Structures are given as structure tokens and as C-alpha cells.
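Cross-posted from the bioinformatics board.
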Amino acid sequence: MEQKLRQEAKALLEQNKVDWIIGFEPGSLKFAATPLITKDKNDTERLIINPFIFNNLADFLTSLEGRVGIVAKGCDSRSIISLIQDNKLAREDLVIIAVPCPGLIDLAKIEQLVGKDRDELDDITREGDKVIVKIEGKKKEFSTIQTLFDHCLACELPTPQEYDILLGEVRPPALELEVSGRNINKLKETSPAERWKFWESELSRCIRCYACRNVCPACFCQRCFVEETEPQWVMPMPRWQDNLIFQIVRNIHVAGRCTDCGECERACPVNIPLRSLTREMYNMVDELFQFKSGMDKEALPLMAHYEQEEAEDLFR
Amino acid sequence: MPPQGNQFGVFTLDATLTAMIQLLTVGLLLEVCMTQQPEWEPKLLGFLCRWCSYAGADLAGTSRKKYPANIRIIKVPCSGRVDSLFIIKALRLGFDGVLVSGCHPGDCHYLTGNYRARRRIAITKKFLEYLGVEPQRVQASWVSASEGGKFAEVVAEVTEGLKEVGPNRMFSKES
């Protein structure tokens, strides 16, 4: 699959069908892949596909000028469609190279399972439904439920719907909804006061680095409301109250755009369970308005559209 | 691909509105300091649409309907003008509850403003409930210009709900 990707990417640049190629190359840290954004056809030799291609590459599209060839997993493709819905991108400027994604391996989960740092592991490979970790010459087998990211366990679209080039075979959706949503379900069982307390303690750790916002393709505002000074909605000092308001409003702004790619939670340097916010908003939008983000490029954005009768039970 | 402005994604922020919220809060604090109230009374912030609910509130007044004096009203051009930030900021500044009120669906002066408000308020309310905010604190209603009686009822009901849940200490330090 990698070889085919390299050929296709090289051909696209050579035939001048695109100005840019966005994909993944090996990162400087062990196992990690890092985004590769290039105009040079020789760089395409470095393109890779493996279970560690975490980033949502759609994030880079809004800052590039010209036609772009982009390597897209299912969630990336939904973010691209969502950006097209919002009129931030034109479909004809894109060549989508679809990669059927079997789910990404969460290194933090692996570290916890084997009790070792990722630098001490020899190799991690995916074979069918098993993930095999090699440590000091010994093999350890884990199931995908134990090792994949939570959001990958409930992935509705592993293969992009909208593409120009498809590498490999279309994959069925992942259906481990219960495991994937266990944190949210656990939270929902507690009382409102306990939940508020929970978010207070979680958001107290936030250092307001804005990594969650910057990795998010749905967060495309030129100027974010937290940086407004007239009026100043949120104080610049990272107190939990303002951190929480930032997260609430960020989630409201990306409602109907968030595709549950889980990037915000992965990027968070202090491990705030942000997916418990984004996924709940994703479910809520589906439940209230039967809207799934990034599925149909002709659909209007959630907040730009309405039905005559909906959500009336919330109004007096 | 030059980034194109999205007609719906751009938030034009109105400084005067926040200034009004802040002024009301200062007034509220002064009130608390100056008067020794025997009992705690909830402070409710109302965003009323200029065409229906504000006129409805007027009618409630002119027809001498009684409703609790707990509500402070901000007039907005349309319920669609109410940003989720207004609601959250009001709670952050210490209001016990927020009421957004506009024209009935289909009766919007700008044709679709209240439909858009409905989606926005619905997710704001539901999401805040998930986070642990009592449902009584964020309320919305449709009140037309001829429904003075309904306006008085809504304010009474919402105030009653706020009395049940007590003062808003969500964002205070000791919460």
C-alpha cells in the first residue's frame, strides 16, 4: 500500500495535477509518524502508512494555497467534507487519496498494558484482530479492543466515502460502542453536582496551550473568541472557570463539524479527557437533529440550516 | 484556495451587549451590598426579542399582570442574536439563570432567526446539562407580542425553578 501511495503521489506532482502533497513521514520519536507537507516529488519516497498516523491532516488544508493531494483516513475525509460544507475548501482543488484505516494504536494504552515506556519496546505490529508487541525478544498479544484509540472503536467511516484514489479495500465500520463510550456513560450515571466537580478538577490542569484548538480542523476561525479583547469573553489567565468556558464554547462552535477524530484528546499535554466532551456533542447533534458531520458534501452546515419542527420540547 | 468568509461562521461580537451585561452585574452587586435582604432572591437575565417577547413583556406591564421582579431584561433585535457565549458569560458573572425568549417558530420578523436560535439554544442547554448545570438555569420560551399573560407565567415559572435549585455557585471559588 505504501509503494502504491508513493507512486500515486509522485505521479500527481509530476503531472502537475496538484501543487502540494500532504501525508505522513516517519517522526523523530519512536513509532511516531509526523505530517509531511511538500511540493518536492522526491519527498514522496518518505511517505508512509502505519497504525500510528494519528494527525488529522485536514487541519493543514485551510492554510495551503493551490491544489492539494491529501492522504485521508476515514475521519480526515469527514473533516474535509465538513470544510467543503462550510465553503472553506473547493472539492475540485483536492485530490483525496483514501486510506482504509483499520484503527490507530494508542501508545499510551500499550504503555499501560506492558508497564514499559514506548522507547523500551522493540516493535508493535498489527496482524488481523491482534496487536503484537515485541519486548526484549518476547512477543505479547493483545486484542484491538485493548489497544486501539477509543474513538477508533466506534469509527463509523474507516474508509473515506469521497475520494479520487483508493488504496486497498473498503473496511466495515467499527462497532464497539460500549467500550468506546464507557467514560461518557460512567459520567452520566453521576449527579450533576458530581459531574461539575469532575470537570472542575480536570480543567484545573489545563495550561491553555490551545493544542486542542490548533490540531482541530473544525476550529478554523481566523481569530478565536478567546483572543478577543473587546469584549473579553475569557480571561487570559488559565483559571479553571475560564478553561471550562473555553472548552464549552469551543465544543458549541464545532458542533456539527466535529467528526470524533479524537485529535484534541491525543494532543492534550495534561491528559484532559476532552473526547468525553466532543463525543457527547457528536451524539447530541445526531440525536436532536439527525445530523452526522462530514457525511454529505451537499448538506448545509448544521447551524446554517433548520427544520420546521425540532427540539420543541426544550422550549416553553 | 484563499480562505473564504463563511456567512454563518463569523461571529460579530457586540461590545455594547457585554457592557450591558457587565453593567447589570455591577448594579446587581451594588444591590446585594446596599440592601439587607431577608431572603435570597434569584437573579434572572432575560434576552427578549424586540418584535415579540419584548412587546409581550410590555403588554404584561400595561395590562397590569404581576410577575416576579427577579428578571433583568436585555432587548435584542432577534432571538437569533443570542450567542451561546451570552448565556455562558451571564452564568459566569453570577446570574442564577438565563431566559431567552423570541417569536413563535414561523413568526420571526426576519423569517428564520428563531429557527437558528432554536438549534443553538438547544445544544447549549443540553451540553450544559451534561456538564452538570441544572436544567432550570438555562430556559427558553416563545412569547408573542399579544401574550402578556404568558410572559408573566413564564417568568414566574422560571423564577420558581431557580428558587428550587438555589444560588448559582458554579463558578465561585469554593464551589
